[in-house]
C-alpha cells in the first residue's frame, strides 16, 4: 500500500507545472524514503530530477517500492480540479494499475476522488555523478526567470559567465547584443534577495534559452535558485521545494561553432 498526504495540494500543482513542459510522461518511484522522479526531456537534451522526502509529507506510507508510470498531462488535468488549499492524498495498491487522488476541502465538507490509470514506462536510470563545481551561484528565482526571458528575445543561446566580480548573462542575435550583470550582494534585508557566488575558478558556458525558460517554470516553488557550473559538465539548476525536497534540472552546455 502506498499513501502520501499533503496538507497543501498547491505544492504538487507547482511541481507539475515545473516539469510538464519538458516531460510528457514520467515514472514516480515511491519508496519508504520518499518519491523520486528522474527523466530525460522529450528531446533528450536535459534531465529532470525530483526528490520529495517522505518526512516532508503530513502522512506517508509505502510498504513496498512502487514505480508509477504517469502521463503528466492527465495528472495535470486532475490537479487542476483541486483548490490550492485542499488537502491532497495519493493512494495506490502494491501492484496497482491505478492511482487515486483524493482532495478534501479544509472544512472537510467536500471530498473529491479521481482515479487515474498508470502506464508501463521503460525506465532508464541515469547515474548522475557527484561533481565539485567551479562556480555555485545563488540568486532570486524571479530574477533568473526574468533574465532568461529577456535574453531569449535576442538569441537562442545565453552565455553564462561567472567571475569574482559577479555573474554575467549575455545573448546576441539579429537585433543586437544584450548583457546583464549581477554583482554579489553585500547586504540585503532578506536572504532570498541575495546574490551569492562561490567560485573556485571562472567559468563561461553557453546554453539553449528555451530549456532555461522551461526550468524557470519552477520559480513559484522557491524564492531562490542555485546554478552550479563547471567547464564541460552539465549546468545544474536547483530549486528547493519548501521543507520537502528539491527539483534539479541538468543541461549540457552548447559546444561552440555548432550549427544546431
UniProtKB/TrEMBL annotation:
Keywords: DNA replication, DNA-binding, Nucleus
Similarity comment: Belongs to the PCNA family.
Gene Ontology terms, MF aspect: chromatin binding; DNA binding; DNA polymerase processivity factor activity
Main location: nucleus
Protein name: DNA sliding clamp PCNA
Record's subcellular location: Nucleus
Cytoplasm found in the keyword field: no
GO CC annotations, alphabetized: PCNA complex
Record-annotated Proliferating cell nuclear antigen PCNA C-terminal domain positions: 127-254
Function according to Swiss-Prot or TrEMBL: This protein is an auxiliary protein of DNA polymerase delta and is involved in the control of eukaryotic DNA replication by increasing the polymerase's processivity during elongation of the leading strand.
Gene3D superfamilies from the UniProt entry: 3.70.10.10
Pfam family, one: PCNA_N
Alphabetical list of InterPro entries matching this protein: DNA_clamp_sf, Pr_cel_nuc_antig, Pr_cel_nuc_antig_C, Pr_cel_nuc_antig_CS, Pr_cel_nuc_antig_N
One Gene Ontology biological process: mismatch repair
Ranges for domain Proliferating cell nuclear antigen PCNA N-terminal: 1-125
Keyword DNA-binding carried by entry: yes
Assembly notes: Homotrimer. Forms a complex with activator 1 heteropentamer in the presence of ATP.
Amino acid at each position: 500500500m502506498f499513501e502520501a498526504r499533503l496538507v497543501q495540494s498547491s505544492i504538487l500543482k507547482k511541481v507539475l507545472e515545473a516539469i510538464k513542459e519538458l516531460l510528457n510522461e514520467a515514472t514516480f518511484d515511491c519508496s519508504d524514503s520518499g518519491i523520486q522522479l528522474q527523466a530525460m526531456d522529450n528531446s533528450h537534451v536535459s534531465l529532470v530530477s525530483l526528490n520529495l522526502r517522505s518526512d516532508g509529507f503530513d502522512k506517508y506510507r509505502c510498504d513496498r517500492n512502487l514505480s508509477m508510470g504517469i502521463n503528466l498531462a492527465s495528472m495535470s488535468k486532475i490537479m487542476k480540479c483541486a483548490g490550492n488549499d485542499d488537502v491532497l492524498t495519493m493512494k495506490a495498491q502494491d501492484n496497482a494499475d491505478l492511482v487515486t487522488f483524493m482532495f478534501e476541502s479544509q472544512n472537510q465538507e467536500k471530498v473529491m476522488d479521481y482515479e487515474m490509470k498508470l502506464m508501463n514506462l521503460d525506465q532508464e536510470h541515469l547515474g548522475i555523478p557527484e561533481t565539485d563545481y567551479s562556480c555555485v551561484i545563488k540568486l532570486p528565482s524571479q530574477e533568473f526567470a526574468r533574465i532568461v526571458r529577456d535574453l531569449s528575445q535576442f538569441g537562442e543561446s545565453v552565455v553564462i559567465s561567472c567571475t569574482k566580480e559577479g555573474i554575467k548573462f549575455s545573448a546576441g542575435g539579429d537585433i543586437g547584443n544584450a548583457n546583464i550583470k549581477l554583482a554579489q550582494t553585500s547586504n540585503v534585508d532578506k536572504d532570498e534577495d541575495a546574490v551569492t557566488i562561490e567560485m573556485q575558478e571562472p567559468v563561461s558556458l553557453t546554453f539553449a534559452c528555451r530549456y532555461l525558460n522551461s526550468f524557470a517554470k519552477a520559480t513559484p516553488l522557491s524564492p531562490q535558485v542555485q546554478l552550479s557550473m563547471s567547464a564541460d559538465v552539465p549546468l545544474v539548476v536547483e530549486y528547493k521545494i519548501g521543507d520537502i525536497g528539491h527539483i534539479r534540472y541538468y543541461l549540457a552546455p552548447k559546444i561552440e561553432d555548432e550549427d544546431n
